[in-house]
Amino acid sequence: MKATVLGWCGGFPRGGQATCSVLVETPEGAVLLDCGSGSLSNFFRVSDVDRLHGVLLSHLHYDHIGDLGCLQYSINHALRVGLRKKKLPVHAPKTPVDMWKTIQYPYTESFVLCDGMTIEMAGMKITVKKVNHTIECYAFRLERNGKSIVYFTDTTYLPDAHIFVNGADLFFCEATSTSGSCHSTGKGHMSDVEAGYLAKESGVKNLCLIHLPSDAPLLQIKERAESTFGKPVFMPDIDEISTFYV
Question: Does residue 117 have a pLDDT over 80?
Fold first, then answer.
């Protein structure tokens, strides 16, 4: 599996950056985890819609779905010119209901996420877990050939999360709340210290922090997460798209 961070900011992007989105690719195709503001431009730098088997939306806040409408326009185009033969599956929570209605589009098919379900997509088994945010929200575990990637945002620290995250080869975890930041109230989110602790408790091999505050020094976030993880922590590169191979 190849995982590319298309956007790592929470809430709103820093200049030249994008909000949350991760592209996971296999020889069979690709899956998009969230589609935040600014992420679609980065997507087209590394892939195209003909390889995209589906989109998984953790929840329906704008910083995770901001570019979905433009992606849907690109699907319309791809179908018209023959780059795709099928509509794009979009898996998402059904609440808030007004947001669910907003993401409906004639050239995509919407599927409702629920806790504990599994999805087969692009040669991967994807398991869904409900997490604790201000609205209905889900984490995803992607598995293929004995390897695993976990995408974990937005949520407070959950005492049983280590069961879901357990032994992940690559763990994408939010770190929204951090000392010295006024970016967020922190409600429905984890801190950098908690992200590092959860990674250690779960025995993950690699931790990459995402959903980061726009006003906080990234180096300090990295250091605080490393203090509880006990190993080096990856931070999305500020100037380049970060890619991991699992």
Answer: yes
